[in-house]
Amino acid sequence: MESLLKSIETMPVTEPAMWWGTLGTVRPFPSFRPGEDAQEIHTALEEKDVNTLVRILTNRTNAQRQAISQAYHTLTQKDLSKALKKLLSGALEELLLGLLMTPALFDAHRLRQAMQGMGTDEDTLLEVLCTRSAQQLRDISVIYKQEFGRYLENDLISETSKDFTKLLLAILKKEEENMQGIMEYQLIERDFKTLTEALSGKKADPTPWIRVLTTRDSDHLARVLSRWETVRGETVVKAVQSHFSGDLKLGLCVLVCTIQNTPLYLAQRLQTSMKKNSVLFGILVSRSEEDLLSVRVEYRRLTSTSLYSAILKEFKGDLQMALLALCRAEDL
User: Fold this and answer.
1) pLDDT tens column, 182-238
2) Is residue 109 part of a domain?
3) Strand, helix or coil at 299?
4) Cβ atoms of 189 and 179 closer than 8 Å
5) Does some domain include residue 264?
6) DSSP state of 19
7) What's the structural domain count of the chain?
8) Domain edge (last residue) among 173, 200, 225
9) Which of 112, 212, 273, 282 has the most CB atoms less than 10 A away?
10) Structural domain includes residue 78
11) Measured between alpha carbons, how far is 275 from 229 in angstroms, rounded to an integer?
């Protein structure tokens, strides 16, 4: 057994840079030993010690959790996710299984769930698609096909309609246009003019809005939207709400909000959907290594209550402990 554990300890643990940011609440666990964690989890599962499972899985990064899963399989010849399913149930099971997924797999599952059953959860589709980078979206599309045997693009087409579908597909592809040779200030003015003219007719034309907002980098778009609000004296969101309707209006509003301030958008989503586990779990898991500290700040500004206190009030027991561990600390 000792030699097996030693071999497990030498397994490489790679922290994928694209999922890691300085504003995350979950950081790499120091002196990390996946074999020791796997052994402790194995014992906890046999003794039905949920507290230990929560403590370990919420205090490791995703890359470290993947290493633990691999070490557990080497140690027991069993799949860790399946072992957790036998012991856990309900919301805590959902949360911990989500933590064991890779980020791309977790997002793929959220997107699939948003399109299953009666009706489509447009809010979740937009949250995931609008807050991920182009590379992350490519990874999600690949994993979606591997996991479900379906093409994400085709499912979006079948579950949505008209201009809203066009918007989602444009976000999913995020193909930046070649703007070489054009000065930044010239491109800002050109995009500002394009967006303005698209609203000047009897009926607003969504095509230029979709093209501009999905083919430019976020820094440039932030300048364009700032220029809009300075010149026109109204927020871009208000303009979108005045000229568009239905799911397209929702989609453009979310896209604009994420361009201007992603943490604020996520805080607003938490404010309106705190009691909806899928939303809270989705944001805490996916942003815990990205920018959850910023989301906490914006949530405090919005509600005058810390996210930590809100979780403390809303949940109990092991689930509360797990959520608080991901949130990490109180904001005074």
Assistant:
1) 777 888 999 999 999 999 888 999 999 999 999 999 999 999 999 999 999 999 999
2) yes
3) helix
4) no
5) no
6) G
7) 2
8) 173
9) 282
10) yes
11) 34
